[in-house]
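Tokens for Magnesium transporter MgtE intracellular domain-containing protein. Go.
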Amino acid sequence: MAKKEKKRGGLKTFLTIFLSLFSLGLVAVIVMFFLGILPAQNIPIISDLAQGSQKQENLERLNEQLEKEQEELKQKIEEQESTINQLQEQLKSKDEEIQELTQQINSLENAAQTNPQKNQQAVDIAKVYGEMSSKKAAAIITELSDDEAVSILSSLKKAVLARILEKMTPQDAAKYTKLLSEQSAAQSEQPAAESAPSATEEAAAQ
């Protein structure tokens, strides 16, 4: 019994000394940490806490950056939508202007058909096209019938005609150039046919 009690007393004393030393060591580590003598990364528990805190800060910064980029992207999209709306309004205004000019030209053409002074009307129509921009004139002419378009184009000055054809698509420019060429060839052949003597006149002469 005495031996058992002696062993128990020795174990108790050992545990008491061990716990005291552990407590003193822990206190010493904490004091050294706060004094800056012992870096936090050398203490596993504090190091883990510090790393976790750093990761949280990094995630928060990343989240803030993503929110900022998202807001900037949203603003850019809104600006682009505003620009598109403005361009659509401008296009609509240009279409209305072209329609108005087309109506004016149609009125002049109708007047030219009913008015005996057709040559003067043709000059007036050509003047209208000459005063407007080549781009607008090209857009309107391509909406007319081929006969109407050729009638107007043939009345224009060469410089104005060249500028208008330049604003057309290559297909339209080629088409109207061919029609003008055919009209010019037909007009040049007509006087020659009128001046050539007929077979009856040749027989009478003989």
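Residues 3 and 124 are 137 Å apart (CA to CA).
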